[in-house]
Amino acid sequence: MQIAIVEDEPKLVALLEGYLKKADFDTRVYTQGDVALDGLIKDPPDLVLLDLMLPGLDGLSLCREFRKHSSVPIIMLTARVEEIDRLLGLEVGADDYMCKPYSPREVVARVKAVLRRTAPEADSSSNQIIVLDESTANVTVDGQACALTAVELRLLKVMLNKPGQIFNRTQLMNRIYPDGRIVSDRTIDSHIKKLRQKLHAMSNTYTFVHSVYGIGYKFELTPSS
């Protein structure tokens, strides 16, 4: 698996590369935020280690923009330890957060943990019932073709890739609208409602998309009551 290191301190880059390679990860290094964003979008890695303070484009902005194109897990690495920075880092789409100075061994452990947590389960029931072919943009439910709009397809992909994870409306909006447009909560709710209806029409045995009161939505395969 390939880990992208977005960090402008040469000593930290060398340290992280050494430990990650010992753990059998391939690495790719970017030292500027704007260059990193372009490279990550064109060729997404399996995980991103992202420094907060970068030349060209700061880590928070990079994370926010990258999240419009990809759900690849991101671990932020930073010397800024204030609570607001930690919360903001997770709000823009980071999956984990580590403060400098950090142990490179702990970084590797966190990388493995996040990859395990975010990896689609190949043998899970959800993947057996719903199949999303990204190369053809086709979705089947219980073996039946399910026609989805482009937005509904992106919405399903985001949640299907992380079953059980709760997404708030802002997180979903950032992921399903790559042009960065601003839409209302009602628009997201409308897309969710239509997606639910289409999936349920294909299989009334299961419930796929669940509302989490006061927070947002998640994908979880449960028998219909």
Briefly say what this structure is.
This protein is an alpha/beta fold and 225 residues long. It is 43% helix and 22% strand.
Structure description:
The protein has 225 residues and is α/β, with parallel strands linked by helices. It folds into 2 domains: 2-118, 3-Layer(aba) Sandwich (Rossmann fold); 125-223, Arc Repressor Mutant, subunit A (Orthogonal Bundle), CATH 1.10.10.10. The chain is built from 9 helices and 10 strands. The protein has helices at residues 10-22, 33-42, 59-66, 83-91, 104-118, 125-129, 150-160, 169-176, 185-202, and strands at residues 2-6, 26-30, 47-51, 74-78, 96-99, 130-133, 138-141, 144-145, 206-212, 216-223. It has a 5-stranded parallel sheet, sandwiched between helices. A 3-stranded antiparallel sheet has the order 6-7-8. A two-stranded antiparallel ribbon has the order 9-10. Mean pLDDT is 84; it is low at 121-126.
Secondary-structure topology with pairs:
Elements: E1 2-6, H1 10-22, E2 26-30, H2 33-42, E3 47-51, H3 59-66, E4 74-78, H4 83-91, E5 96-99, H5 104-118, H6 125-129, E6 130-133, E7 138-141, E8 144-145, H7 150-160, H8 169-176, H9 185-202, E9 206-212, E10 216-223
Parallel strand pairs: 1-2, 1-3, 3-4, 4-5
Antiparallel strand pairs: 6-7, 7-8, 9-10
